[in-house]
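Put briefly, the fold is written as integer tokens. The lines below illustrate.
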Amino acid sequence: MAGLAPKLLTLRECDRTELEKLLNRRSTPQQIALRAKIILLADKGNNNREIGRELNISRFMARRWRNRWLELSERSIPVIERLQDEERSGKPAKFSMEQVVELFALACCEPEDYGRPISDWTARELAEEIVKQGIVESISPRHVGRLLEEAQIKPHQSRYWLTPPP
């Protein structure tokens, strides 16, 4: 049983040039480069199976990116955005990157600078302080601990980060 021919994809010259620039850039993430190759091969007339063989991917992946490219091209979305992943489902992050960075900066400061009668920050003290400063509305000490652990920040060692060893 023969399959249906894939949808025809014809690139505008400016899109082709942009895709080729992305491929030639060293800083282009591998996923984006692979997707650009899929689109360029589709533009040359290759079907999904041929693209899959040449790039060592499934024909379903080739079809997905061909169809997504065609769909997003109709909406005049920039080339790099057409190659990005779609938004994923799930709950959005509760804290912005700026808020997390402010937490990290606070963790690297001395508690005495904030009127805290302690020598080292604890997760509970940090949580209370960033709420007090209005950086976040609320945050649990456990979440503060997870954020610090993920970033490999250890507040009890912060004084060693701030001053060079003798």
The chain has two domains: 13-82, 97-162. The chain has a mean pLDDT of 87.
